[in-house]
User: Fold this.
Amino acid sequence: AQKITQTQPGMFVQEKEAVTLDCTYDTSDQSYGLFWYKQPSSGEMIFLIYQGSYDEQNATEGRYSLNFQKARKSANLVISASQLGDSAMYFCAMREALGEKLTFGTGTRLTIIP
Amino acid sequence: EAQVTQNPRYLITVTGKKLTVTCSQNMNHEYMSWYRQDPGLGLRQIYYSMNVEVTDKGDVPEGYKVSRKEKRNFPLILESPSPNQTSLYFCASSFGAGGPQETQYFGPGTRLLVL
Assistant:
């Protein structure tokens, strides 16, 4: 069965510093996709970044990058130069080969301190 | 604007009173899904649909029904709501009917309180 583990319930980071949010996963599929979503206090789920299991390079989207270590089954989100608007809940998720569902972790609440 | 819409956004109801939460997408997506979010549990899938008239159970389907009569709409039905169904509900859709690379896009969420 698929599983996503986010071990950091909460993090406090100084503005302008880089931050790494941890995510480990477990699956028996060879083909899978890893996603990060941001949930601000308003509640909506915002897609941030995607990494495919066969992608050889780490995904990047603006200030977001994904540190993908396949052998370790980890897919950590790195936010460079954090901003106050980055304060939110962050979820790691995995979609299996057949794509029926996203399996989510329990999330990390990130707070950026001025 | 490409989007997933849900209605209502907020709902307070009483135990046993049937309700429907609507979900609609304007992106011609084949795949749609419902999730519920509870503190400390992340999001869990309730039901999903790979295409019109094709639906299947997710991880927590008890107490819920869905239908997919049109490609754009995927309503969630609570026939007899109970307090343990108090939650934040999300509808999501993606272009393809399957495949790990398909990004799911989420609606704004519906906050449901069952008294």
